[in-house]
Amino acid sequence: xxxxxxxxxxxxPGGSLKLSCVASGFAFSRYSVRWYRxxxxxxxEMVASISGSGGATAYGDSSKGRFTISRDNAKNTAxxxxxxxxxxxxxxxxxxxxxGCLGQGNQxxxxx
Length: 112
Known about the structure:
There is one protein chain. 0% of the residues lie in helices and 49% in strands. It is an all-beta fold. It has a six-stranded mixed beta sheet, with no helix packed on it. The radius of gyration is 13 Å and the shape is globular. The chain contains no helices and ten strands.
């Protein structure tokens, strides 16, 4: 079982980034996918989740209205589109089928 995040980097406030999460080694479409993040000095925070079929989504308070989670089961890939980014969105972002900040993660830095 493996999920690998990509697409992070440095972006200016107000900008956008799209994270990808490529899965392998399991029946991807049967599992919900969750994006979490951990900002420096802060606890792990749920960003968004999506059901196996993609028909149900949920968002944390800080990401509602700005972030969109999606998935393409044919490509074993989940996405997190992040718009109107703020400096407080700076964090390591993790995708997984389980809750929590697990795995290597992908750094997102929002700064001018």
